[in-house]
Amino acid sequence: MKIANLLKRLFVRFVLLSNLIFWLFLVIIGLSMMLGVPKKILHGMEIIAAWSSTFAFLILFKRIYPDVKIKAYVKKQFAPKVKISVIVAVTMIQVLIFLVAKGFLVNSGAEPSFTLSLSGMGMLILTFFDLLARGSLGEELGWRGYALNELQKKMSPLKAALLIGVLWGFWHTPLWFFSGYAGVELFKYCIFFMIAVLGISVIMTVFYNLNKNLIVPILIHQSFNFSLALSQGDLLDILVYTAIGYGLVALVLIAINPKQTLVIGSRHIEAAE
User: Fold this and answer.
1) pTM score, whole prediction
2) Rounded CA separation 58/2 (Å)
3) Between the ranges 30-34, 246-250, 269-273, where is the mean pLDDT highest?
């Protein structure tokens, strides 16, 4: 009975449906690769797969919000004025994490110093928009716009952030096994991936609660993905240092929020505008 009642909950259905759609697309992509489908088509399918949480939310939308129109709901997610102070704060935090992680990687010899040519700049621009399409733009309406806000109605923002982090992290499980790592390296990859995701989830919750515009979590998510793309060493080495950075920042934010509201500091951010 408990399982039956659990499955009746729309939030649980959202999580299960998000995973089901994602796995379904990955199976289709795998079969398409075996059949020799052109890379451009495969790439398009990968982008669509990344939107599985949004598809799940849209499928369940009328049951979740029976009296609300989808267009009005989406518009509302971007309606609040974007606070420049919030954007500057998250940008500075993530740039700092990137630079510190980069410094450790270069000093340890795990990565060469960063150089960029004109052609390299063009590739980075393409990579930026590719990551935007296959990452933050497709994931945040479901995971933050719906799931995080829904959980915060029933629990503290900290608990909601951690739970979403776990669910969102395990949603990526299929990608772990496509990482190319095995054995101890795969285990290490999974651990630091989850540390990074939990850290990002806490940071997103803090700044999203300060400025309820979906652009905030989209920006944080995109900046994380793009920072990994900017690094030139082994992905596992990059992930280790980056995950530690995000984890430490998350711990600091939790430490200065003893009541687990994850909004302490809002007055300072408001005053900076």
Assistant:
1) 0.89
2) 26
3) 246-250
Describe the crossing of helices 118-134 and 215-230 by its angle, rounded to 10 degrees. 140
What mean pLDDT value characterizes the chain?
87
pLDDT at 190: 94
Q: Is residue 60 part of a domain?
A: no
Q: What is the domain extent for residue 95? A: 77-271
Confidence at 176, pLDDT banded by 50, 70, 90:
confident
What is the C-alpha separation between 72 and 104, in angstroms, rounded? Answer: 46
Task: Flag whether 24 is in a domain.
Answer: no
17 belongs to a structural domain: no
How many separate domains does the chain show? 1
pLDDT of 91 reads 96
- Structural domain contains residue 15: no
256 class by beta-carbon count within 10 Å (0-12 exposed, 13-18 middle, 19+ buried): exposed
- pLDDT tens readout for residues 206-251: 999 999 999 999 999 999 999 988 877 788 889 999 999 999 999 9
The secondary structure of the chain, three-state, reads CHHHHHHHCHHHHHHHHHHHHHHHHHHHHHHHHHCCCCHHHHHHHHHHHHCHHHHHHHHHHHHHCCCCCHHHHHHHHCCCCCCHHHHHHHHHHHHHHHHHHHHHHHHCCCCCCCCCCHHHHHHHHHHHHHHHHHCHHHHHHHHHHHHHHHHCCCCCHHHHHHHHHHHHHHHCHHHHCCCCCCHHHHHHHHHHHHHHHHHHHHHHHHHHHHCCCCHHHHHHHHHHHHHHHHCCCCHHHHHHHHHHHHHHHHHHHHHCCCCCCCCCCHHHHHHCC
What is the percent of the chain with per-residue pLDDT over 70, rounded to a whole number?
87
